[in-house]
Amino acid sequence: MTVESPSTADVPSLDDDPFGTEVLTDPYDFHRRLRDAGPVVFLPRHGIYALGRFADVTAALTDWETFVSSRGAGISDFAKEEPWRPPSLLLEADPPDHTVVRTAMNGVISPRSMRALRERFAAPANEIADRLVAQGTVDAVTDLAEVYPLQVFPDAVGLPEAGRENLLPYGGLAFNAFGPDNELRRKALATAAPVQAWVMEQCQRENLAPGGFGEQIWAAADRGEITHEQAPMLVRSLLTAGVDTTVYGIANTVYALSRHPGQWAQLHGQPARAKFAFDEALRWESPVQTFFRTTTRDVEVAGTTIPRDTKVLLFLGSANRDPRQWGEDADVLDIGRRAAGHVAFGMGVHQCVGQPVARLETELVLTALAQRARAIEPAGDPVPKLNNTLKGWASVPVRLVPA
Fold this sequence. Notes:
By secondary structure, the chain is α+β, with helices and mostly antiparallel strands. Helix content is about 45%, strand content about 10%. Helix 5 (about 110-135) runs antiparallel to helix 7 (about 150-155) and helix 13 packs parallel to helix 18.
């Protein structure tokens, strides 16, 4: 459906569907045309404005008063339609409400808690790396990215062993639901009920093991930092933020390095650079490609006025390859690059709350692999995994060559 607006007459437009199979599979040609078309582009397929350049995406992400999240981080406008689930207290809220819960979460996922987790997470990372390098030919998705995070992170939260297989479809559902009413979203919602029910049941105090993040969130409610009604919602947010994006991030990183043997050779020579390699891989192929915001006023972006009450699609993946920010080699993977300013985890008050956990997990497992494998190379064609928000793979066959 094409949506026309008289206010967009002087705004460059592109007829591509950002939620179509072609763009979701390989978005980079579209991203180049989006950035080149102008700082603000109208997408008539969905009647939305889009920002694809780094400076403009970053400015919008950090201006929560103008570009609000509380009306939905997806295409649905919560001021006009009912959300598919109770909105996230973190992702779909703005200050001051957001500040209260974010402060509580920062107390749970703190530098101190990350130091405590490092030792617990290291042993499983080494065990998986030993097994995969001995095996030789493996799938970076099903043998690694979907195994390691789902082994260590639910333990950290305090989830029971039974039912953890629900975490991946739940994350896929949540991120597909940010998109329009297309086949991906409809299919995800059609199978949502049992998965949603399991997730919400695990967020209750009595189902969370002592000492985990979940129990700590409930303890914050006992101290009055948040309400007891907010506690299970925050555990739910943690499960959304801490699983899928990490799975995609690990798989995308291994995919990227397997296609760039010189970069893996550098990492093998200096395994301590794993965290820098992860940042560059996040920039080069961002797991979270897009998020929506809604304008609260008429706002001028680089000379173009976006009307108030308008949905704006921020292309994080495009911003992370913008040569205006990263230079003419922005499409090149270079683990020596200073990539820390990327927006793969967002920016500003809504920056991903699970980011420290994702960084820790990926650093540990990537370091372990780099120590044990002198080379990593493709062992077959990768299979894309389509999602309205995430960019990643269903399968990435690779061959690990022992050191």
